[in-house]
Write a structure and sequence with these properties.
Oligomer: single chain
Order of helices and strands: HHHHHHH
Shape: elongated
């Protein structure tokens, strides 16, 4: 009877370690995916607002249909605030949407700040300057995404190994 309890406890520990490692890995994957989506969003918005001269409200609606759920919420929130005609400048509306839709979630303060800074590019009326700023911000998100993916690969491998060692240690401890 005691052997069965030890074996079942060891199995539970192994499963718990594997699930904890998977949870951490999914967080890093999601972060990298959001940065990649933000890069793609800015490239899309550049095409829409600079080349096709689509109004920002319409471009944000179209972009929201193409984005992940996290960025979609920010875009829809911004569009709804623009439609309310609150009289606030676009940069303020964008910042409020980012703050509200990302509070306590998936990105760190540096990434949130970078997303907020894109407002200067999105609301710029000079098309040359808008294109330049959108390209600059897109390049920044591309670089952040590459770094995040490299960090994800590095740390996920490390956590997988640490999880296996910790699981083996606890299993041996119980047996």
């Amino acid at each position: 009877m005691e052997v069965y309890v030890k074996i079942s406890g060891s199995i539970c520990i192994a499963v718990a370690v594997a699930l904890a490692e998977q949870q951490i890995e999914n967080k890093w994957k999601r972060n990298a995916a959001i940065l990649r989506d933000m890069y793609e969003l800015l490239v899309f918005l550049e095409k829409e607002t600079v080349y096709r001269r689509t109004p920002i409200q319409e471009a944000l609606k179209q972009a929201a249909e193409r984005c992940s759920l996290d960025l979609k919420n920010i875009l829809f929130h911004t569009v709804s605030m623009i439609q309310e005609k609150s009289g606030k400048p676009f940069a303020v509306i964008w910042e409020e949407a980012v703050e509200q839709e990302t509070s306590g979630r998936f990105i760190d303060q540096k990434q949130k700040s970078a997303i907020i800074q894109t407002a200067e590019a999105l609301c710029n009326t000079d098309t040359v300057m808008q294109r330049t700023l959108l390209q600059k911000h897109a390049a920044k998100f591309y670089e952040m995404g590459q770094r995040s993916e490299a960090q994800f690969r590095e740390k996920s491998s490390l956590y997988r190994k640490l999880g296996a060692v910790a699981g083996a240690f606890f299993i041996l401890l119980f047996l």
